[in-house]
Amino acid sequence: MVGITGRTPAIDEQSFANSLEPLVHTDRYEADVVFESASHSIGTTAYPEYPIRIVENDDRWVCLEGHIYGRDDEALERELLTVGAHVLSADGDDEFLTQWLLETDGEFLLVAADKESDRLGLLNDPLARLPTYYFHDGETVLFSRELRYLINEAPIEGFDPMGIAQCLLFGYSLGDRMLVHGANRLRPGTKLIVDPERGAVTETALHRFDFGDPAFEDRSRTRNAAELVDRFKQACRQRSGYGTCDVISLSGGLDSRSVLAGYHAEGLPMTAATMVSDDFVPPSDVEIAQQLADEFDVNWRRYEVGPPNGSDLDRIIKTKNGQIGLLTSFILEFFRQLREEYDAGLTYVTGDGGDKALPDLTPAKPISDDSELVDYIIRENSFLSLEQVARITGLSAESIRRSVRDRLRMYPETDPASKYVHFLVYERGVNFLFEGEDRNRFFFWSTTPFYSLEFFRYAMNCPADQKARYDLYRTFLEELEPAAADLTHPDYGVPVSSTRHEIAAFADELLSRYPWLFDAVRPVVKSLNSLETESQLQPDTVDCIRTQIEQCEAVDDVLVTDELRRFLDSYPEHDRTSVYRLFAVTSVIDDIHSSQSVLESRCDAVFS
Predict the structure, then answer these.
(1) What does pTM read for this prediction?
(2) Which domains does the chain have, with CATH numbers?
(3) Among 377, 383, 381, 379, CA closest to 326
(4) pLDDT single digits (tens) 118-159
(5) Smaller CB count within 10 Å for the chain: N or C?
(6) Alpha-carbon Rg of the chain, whole angstroms?
């Protein structure tokens, strides 16, 4: 993965440079040692166009990975030195840093070093948009944007069984827990200080969102939508023009069309790109994307994508290390085509986060306590059933449930509905979806206006009753660009602005209260709205997992392979997403422990 990596105590420059080489995943990547002191070694692995900025003066050194938007270069460099001083301050000026974070629109990791004291500090944005991992055991501290660096270089003692169980259940582990023992995820809005004189590592949470009491529930939906439109346009303006061109990832959905509409409303230069695939992209998605491009008179191109091969799956495993699934590996071909069409200096603008900021995220039915909430979370968010995960990992179902309940008890909210919102943002969003966005940055910079902090903060303070049934989203789109609301929403097959959409959304909400009925109706809705694709789970995929079990003894150390074999024997009864969730876990185990993994030996195999 691209980004910053560091360690303390320092090792000689050549040894440190050599330790970065496994993170150089293509011939366009370069590994550079960018700072060395008596205590620290810091380096970067990136392609030339990737945003890394280094500033320093006589007292301190500061490296910024990512972007802070809306600042000119000279002002930003002065600001980074000031922020770096506050990060490194022995007095711990956290109030200044918290205020600065909440006033700053950006996706970044900041690393600062004090040249006199050799203190080292890390600071990330309030949403942790750039996933970062660290390890410390009292003697050694390592941090990196790529988990594999910690696995390679830290004295890590194998896989964490509960981390594996949570990853099989949800697709991601919870909180700062990782798949391996000893590795930690840097939580959002966090300052991490390494003090070599005291031999101490201090982690301070500077900001956590509390989704309990929306501040704008006394405002009308119309006013809230207008406020959101203003902030959304500003977010689009601030993200425009940082690269050689802005390419909007355009589907037929509401989120990407909002981005298109925002750029159009502000008169910002852009092009649009849509992925086309019989296997993975519904035809209606492509048709509506073309209608949107025609409506807004934007330069638009389609890119044909076929099934991924073993090399694509292997690349996902080596760069994201089980943090995202393998089912979307086909998107790598889309990214390769975009980079060839433009260059690695493009800014890839997505609608990511629209599904978190504007819809109603509260549970579809009343939840009375944390125990009910745990059941609801597992039912609504699991890839495999709790019982299947328990059998395959050898952990008890109750211990897995308890790990979810323990995590919920750390949230700042008090009512179950708001805790569920927190779960979807901080667990599914931060720990899973942001990892997927980070995969994009393997090719070029990727961003979204929906996670602009000013927009996101306002949106999450709008009340759930205004967001229900797409009401706030509909009003937002109509205010932003009416034409965007007049085109079909593929989920319902009708325009967003129509009365029929309101009726369909109401029916959808009603069905979601009765999961058995929703599961029965969903295939019919998908068929009527042309949401089906031709992709099916192939026996070759299952054979690949079986080979991993047979050839890699470590799989047997981590999972109960007899239960895993039984699951695979009945694979036609399982959803392909659940099989691919297992595939990601067995693949990362195999890749870490085998001299040649099964995926490496099947680079040309097609995974449909």
Answers:
(1) 0.94
(2) 3-205 (3.60.20.10), 221-359+431-481 (3.40.50.620), 539-601 (no CATH)
(3) 383
(4) 999 999 999 999 999 999 998 899 999 999 999 999 998 899
(5) C
(6) 24
